[in-house]
Design goal:
By secondary structure, the protein is mainly alpha-helical. Among the domains are: 1-9 and 27-78, no CATH class; 80-156, Winged helix-like DNA-binding domain superfamily/Winged helix DNA-binding domain (Arc Repressor Mutant, subunit A), CATH 1.10.10. It has helices at 35-46, 53-78, 83-95, 101-108, 112-124, 146-167, 172-193; strands at residues 128-132, 140-144. The chain has a two-stranded antiparallel ribbon with strand order 1-2. β1 (128-132) and β2 (140-144) form a beta hairpin. α2 packs across α6 and α4 (101-108) packs across α5.
Length: 198
């Protein structure tokens, strides 16, 4: 199936033959007028036999993520960074200590080859530096340079300010409820996929 954001296939997420009983796209309110609701109504018209409930959740998560990332990437583009490169810098900043490329790969859910490429680019820009392990030449340790730390610290407040503005339409209780539900979903998904937490 074509998902609500126009890019992701959600075919595996909708089971056949089970009527959707939640409020969903037809439940009124703002949700009844978003882009996902329109897609769901179209699928219900041509395939009334399937349950589109999962699409109403996954489609909205995907759509929100795509819209948020487009806007959040603007400050990164201004300083010539890609999102994956900033993820590497952010990981080094928030952990507060040196990491090996393998540790960075695990923290950023990236392949080793991708991290190697990003580290090369960031090293050339003087944002990170690598040192060899005294006991094992095959191991490298990566840390932020002063320039890298300054760049991360300069961009992060702008991103957080944008995120606060985006969420301002939800009151504190609504934000807390949404954060809790997403947290529960994330824990379940990480558990199924074997992703380490903590």
């Amino acid at each position: 199936m074509t998902a609500a954001d126009g890019r992701t296939d959600t075919g595996g997420g909708t089971a056949g033959g089970r009527p959707h009983t939640g409020s969903g796209a037809d439940g009124g309110g703002a949700a009844a007028h978003d882009t996902v609701a329109a897609v769901v109504r179209q699928w219900r018209a041509v395939r009334p036999d399937i349950d589109t409930g999962p699409m109403e959740i996954i489609g909205r998560i995907n759509r929100c993520a795509a819209l948020l990332q487009q806007a959040e990437d603007a400050p990164l583009r201004r300083v010539g960074l890609t999102r994956p490169e900033f993820d590497v810098l952010g990981t080094l900043r928030r952990t507060g200590h040196e990491l090996t490329p393998g540790e960075i790969a695990r923290e950023t859910f990236s392949s080793g080859a991708a991290v190697t490429k990003r580290l090369k680019q960031l090293t050339e820009r003087g944002l990170v530096e690598r040192r060899g392990d005294a006991r094992d030449r095959r191991v490298a340790h990566v840390r932020l340079t002063d320039a890298g730390r300054e760049l991360v610290d300069g961009i992060l407040p702008e991103q957080l300010s944008y995120e606060s503005a985006v969420l301002s339409g939800l009151d504190g209780e609504g934000q807390g409820e949404l954060a809790g539900l997403l947290g529960e979903l994330l824990v379940q998904l990480e558990g199924r996929l074997g992703v380490p937490r903590g």
